Amino acid sequence: xxxxxVIDKPVGVTSHDVIDDIRRILHVRRVGHTGTLDPFAxxxxxxxxxxxxxxxxxxxxxxxxxxxxxxxGYATDTGDRTGKRIxxxxxxxxxxxxxxxxxxxASLRGYIDQVPPMYSAKKQQGQKLYELARRGEEVExxxxxxxxxxxxxxxxxxxxxxxxxxxxRDGTFDLKVRVACTSGTYIRTLAEDFGKRLRVGAHLAExxxxxxxxxxxETATTLDQLKLSAAEEGVGRVMLPADAALSWFxxxxxxxxxxxxxxxxxxxxxxxxxxxxxxxxxLRDEQGKLIAVGTFNSGSSSVHxxxxxxxxx
Length: 313
Prior knowledge:
The protein is an alpha+beta fold. 18% of the residues lie in helices and 32% in strands.
């Protein structure tokens, strides 16, 4: 059992819960994810199974895309709908004009500094921030630079005339948005900062991750579908080969002797390539199966294996 699963995580469970479910369904121990989703969030969760778990280091930094609902009207202590309500002093009542929304979106695109939320898994001095937050402690956090590639409203057909804001008739307004960003971006913090631009408290009411790198939620598998595939001995229909996890890396198909050298951690000479020095390369055997990830050395015209996932012959 070796490969990649793209799972559509359901609401109400942790990413680790998904890992436990997959271990039970597939009867394997080596299972890992490449980026957590909060329990209230849904969507794309890239799972590595078996020897492919060694590839996690190449996947954790992939860009991501989300669809979310920002609720304008009040903030929460967690930044999402699961937290306690916090009122904002001098809060501006909506609705806001299209121009105000446009300016708020524009101010948060590109490179920005984010302060990690207290309710996050980020560690500080060996402790997870959410553990401190649950004890009522708050510590100073250093801002982290992230890049927001795209941040825009999604107009829905449920709103009159396709308006961006949905009036909930309780003093709050919902705004559905799409975000494309670098890894490490906190969408909860983005929602809070968006509210600050409008001088109103804000939090995430919904969050769905629609893409991780080249993996899209439209092609993801639910846990129920995985369970059915496993019962029918058809896991191969939903599990991608390990090679698919790194499709953007150039590939090198090796003859048996060179493949054997790579499996044993020995570099192989190559010629006539246009790769950059220290570029990562997928190393495959004669059957096209990924056996390792290597690093190209332009000085010696060779590829040295840095992560080997195949067993030695």
